[in-house]
Amino acid sequence: MNTAASTVAPLRWTPRRLSGPGLLISLGALLVCTLLWAAGQGAYSLPLSELPGVLLGAVTTAVPSSSGAELVFFNIRLPRLVLGLAAGAGLGLAGALMQGLFRNPLADPGLIGVSSGAALAAGATIVMGNLWFPDLPRSLGSWTLVLMAFGGGLAVTVLIYLLSRGEGGTRVGLMLLAGIAVNALAGAGLGLLSFLATDEQLRNLQFWLLGSLGGARWSAVALVGGITLVAGAVGLRLARPLNALALGEAQAVLLGVSIERVKQIAIVVTALAVGAVTATTGIIGFIGLVAPHMVRLVAGPDHRWVLPGSALLGAVLVLLADAVARTVMQPAELPLGVLTAVVGVPFFLILLRSAHGRRL
Amino acid sequence: MNARLLDADWRSACGELPAGERPLWLDDDVEANDGIDTPAWDEGLGLCALEVGVRAGHSTLLQGVRLRLAPGEVGAILGPNGAGKSTLLSVLSGLRAPDTGRVTLNGLAVTPATVHQLARHRAVLPQETAVAFDFRAQDVVGLGRYPHHLHPSPNEAAIVRAAMQATGVADMAERSVASLSGGERARVQLARVMAQIWEPRPDGAPRWLLLDEPTAALDLRHQHETLCTVQRWAREQGVGVLAVLHDPNLALRYADRVWVLDGGVLQASGPPARVLRPALVQRVWQVQASTVRAVDGVPQLLIAASAPPLPWKDGP
Do A301 and B129 touch (CB under 8 A)? Predict the structure, then answer.
């Protein structure tokens, strides 16, 4: 036996963490850089040097200019950037809320059924829409899809919430299982719909399921942005209660947390934010799961930093993924859901395998 | 001092007893003396359980349990496994509503409806706490300050440090709780609940510390250090401490008052040296014991081996 080795005390190395404010400043700077870079990417290339001119032009001249750069920027590029920002922030925040609420790092916003509900409703609209709403004009038709998906997401969330109600409040473990079961059922419904769909409908459905910011119009941006802002303002207030909840529900109650209210607020905020995002963009996977993890690995688990940090990082990830999606195969656009996984997973795996990840 | 008088005081503090539902007292019962060595009983400034009963389905978990503890005292709840000790503690902390009877703390009703208001008056150490996510030890202790986050003390960080020093975990502040040993984690949790009620209340109301098996994960030295710490805290700061203990010798050394539960029914209560006698120990735990004195004169129990029937020898 090697005596020298046995006398060496086990090395307990605690990696340095980024401080909370430091994290938010870094992520904020990263977000600004991403926005500036992403603004130039796309079918119509818009070099960074032209951007100040375009922005200044819009501010100084009262009459909207009809120059190509300005048209592209304000009608196509900017709404898309804002939609990506809002969608990423909403998904990141919702993921952090759900992981905190379920005290489980595997939780993601889809667990409470909002994504699968939205997908089922969207699928039904795409496949059956012509039967149900044959008279709708085309412009209103796309709004039908958004509203149906939003409503479907909320309805399934309410169903799962009611299923998990028990004596003494909402049972989080039951909610997790009910969520998995109802999600599976929604998946089956979606399977049936794709079986019934025509080839064109199937393609539309598939496209929707993989997510895209391509449908960015200012009206949709306003819907998602507004809801995300409200969700953020309310959701960020849950930071301290979610920290206390890390000790378990009983201890959180003994520390004075109104546990049932925290659960309801977290679920409502998540359902609204993810519902609105999913309804306008389709399913953008992985952001809600990965962003909070990355933030925790870098800055620790304090929700006062994890919640805003996840929102910022979610926005960065979605904007990056979308910029790549619309440039790599020009003029075609790759589905965003494919890109969020491609951008997120390798980075995530590297972090998991690093020193930080060993303590997960 | 007159026990009858104190009994009357107690009734006025806790409310009238329902007639004819008195628990069964043993010969060792010292209930008549209950409260004699307590300083003057201040109405509304105590932890009171009155005829507490809890049922779960068809089984009775607790029946007719009476308990009262004055600020500055250390109380211990003892009893065999499944006697209802933790159930009693969850009723006393307000997590669980009793089916019969009631609990008051500082004159406030303790129920699941009022549990939030009590967070600055009492802290509860659970038997075991699994902390989700990778919090550092000092972060966990800091979570104990949650009830004060709207009106923080000017020295929040100092409170966290002092609480960690009190339980001897100050040098682990930066370490992840997941990397600590079971005993170290238990002491971090104790520091957390002490931090929760570290400062005296501005209105002078007593603070309360309820501990569910605080010594279960600890080595011999830390068992004694921990109980010594909370005992001194009780004496010097007027905090009322109530602990579920398994070791009668720890109760004999550190408790001012003990309650012995068996089958959900209070078997005896009073000063530990008068309650924890060989006859009661034999009756409740079915082990033979004799009383001896430790070198410092504190009575302790010596337990004789009692072999249970061995199923692989006596079984069918």
Answer: no
Report yes or no on A15 lying in a domain: no
Supply the pLDDT for residue B211. 96
Three-class secondary structure of residue B265 per DSSP: strand
Is residue A73 in some structural domain?
Answer: no
Domain B3-121+201-272 has CATH 3.40.50.1360: no
User: Domain with A311 in it: what CATH number?
Assistant: 1.10.3470.10
Q: Is A175 helix (H, G, I), strand (E, B) or coil?
A: helix
Q: Is residue A3 part of a domain?
A: no
Q: Name the burial class of residue A320, with classes exposed (0-12), middle (13-18) and buried (19+) by CB atoms within 10 angstroms of its CB.
A: buried
In this predicted model, what pLDDT tens digit does every residue of A223-243 receive, in sequence order?
Answer: 899 999 999 999 999 999 999
Chain B residue with Cα closest to A253:
B116
Q: Quick check: A124 and A155 in contact, CB under 8 A?
A: no
Model pLDDT for residues B50-60, shown as the tens digit of each residue: 999 999 888 99
Q: Give the closest-approach CA distance of A102 to chain B in angstroms.
A: 10
Answer yes or no: are the C-beta atoms of B70 and B63 closer than 8 Å.
no
B178 touches chain A (CB under 8 A): yes
Confidence of residue A165 (pLDDT cuts 50, 70, 90): confident
Q: Using a cut of 0.95, tell me whether the model's pTM lies above it.
A: no
Domain range list for chain B: 3-121+201-272
CA–CA distance, A298 with A25 (Å, rounded to integer): 13
The answer to whether residue B180 neighbours chain A at the CB level (below 8 Å) is: no
Is the residue at A42 inside a domain?
A: no
Burial of B273 from C-beta contacts in 10 A (0-12 / 13-18 / 19+): middle
**How many structural domains compose chain A?**
1
Question: Which pair of structure tokens corresponds to residue B35?
Answer: 């409260």
Burial (CB count within 10 angstroms: exposed 0-12, middle 13-18, buried 19+), residue B208: buried
Per-residue tokens: A102: 């379920």
DSSP B41-100: --TTSSEEEEEEEEEETTEEEEEEEEEEE-TT-EEEEE-STTSSHHHHHHHHHTSS--SE
Cα–Cα distance, B133 to A67 (Å, whole number): 53
